[in-house]
Amino acid sequence: MASSPSLTPEDILAFAAELADAARPIARAYFRTPLDIVTKADESPVTLADRAIEARLRGLIEARFPDHGIFGEEMGVKPGREPGTGPVWVIDPIDGTKSFVTGLPLFGTLIAFLDGGAPVVGLIDMPALDERWTGLPGQARFGSEPARTSPCRSLSAARFFTTSPEGFSGADEVSYRRLTAKAALRRFGGDCYAYGLLASGHCDLIAETGLQPYDYMALVPVIRAAGGVITDWSGEDLTLASDGRVLAAATPELHAEALAILRA
């Protein structure tokens, strides 16, 4: 890693696991309890748990790596020593807040490490389920076992996921409906959990819009290392400046077929 020559991806992943371990008991302490819920400008709920987890993770990162940048959902951006190019941690304390506040255990903590703007390490942790996916170059794992995407190469055989069909509007909704009409099976919900399922071969294709970098950056190393493909709807790599439209597929062939439909 050019900006952190003394750190290996394995070092970073070990610290990301420490962060996720610190987040888990906080999430569990608040889950299925009366919550102070407010509504953000984008109409997604924010809870005490979101803020408590992000504050804890920021404190741990700043103590270990004071010159690293941090981009979190609730508390914004802390520039690093090299703004825009140096090491940056991207964190979503609770991805799937609507699931969290309604007692559904399909919420997760997302942690990504970027170097030079590119995601190097990703972690998807599911506190209520005691499940975790990790990804670094050449290695994706579900717990201690290797994770691998399915061999599905055809949309007609694909098991499709999206968080909610209500997330699409206008031209995006037209493209989404054209895509799902050709899929073998459609399922909804799950937020980040669906991407873990894709990495482990249980679903084959995911398309979403309106995501923020903290929603998708941690997913990229996991999906890629598991053998899948994840890009925006133009087929470009996901970056901090992407437009929030995400397409993830189990194989390059399936991704190419889905991408052609979305671009049509």
Automatic annotation (TrEMBL):
Q: A biological process (GO) annotation for this entry?
A: L-histidine biosynthetic process
Instruction: Enumerate the catalysed reactions.
Output: L-histidinol phosphate + H2O = L-histidinol + phosphate
Q: Which SUPFAM superfamilies does the record match to this protein?
A: Carbohydrate phosphatase
Instruction: Name the pathway it acts in.
Output: Amino-acid biosynthesis; L-histidine biosynthesis; L-histidine from 5-phospho-alpha-D-ribose 1-diphosphate: step 8/9
**UniProt cofactor(s):** Mg(2+)
GO molecular function terms attached to this record: histidinol-phosphatase activity; metal ion binding
Q: What class of enzyme is it?
A: hydrolase
Q: E.C. number, please?
A: 3.1.3.15
Q: Which residues bind Mg(2+)?
A: 73, 92, 94-95, 215
- PROSITE patterns per record: IMP_1
The domain of life for this entry's organism is Bacteria
Q: Keywords assigned by UniProt?
A: Amino-acid biosynthesis, Histidine biosynthesis, Hydrolase, Magnesium, Metal-binding
The similarity annotation says:
Belongs to the inositol monophosphatase superfamily.
- PANTHER family from the UniProt entry: 3'(2'),5'-BISPHOSPHATE NUCLEOTIDASE (PTHR43200:SF6), PHOSPHATASE (PTHR43200)
Annotated protein name in UniProt: Histidinol-phosphatase
Organism of derivation: Methylorubrum populi
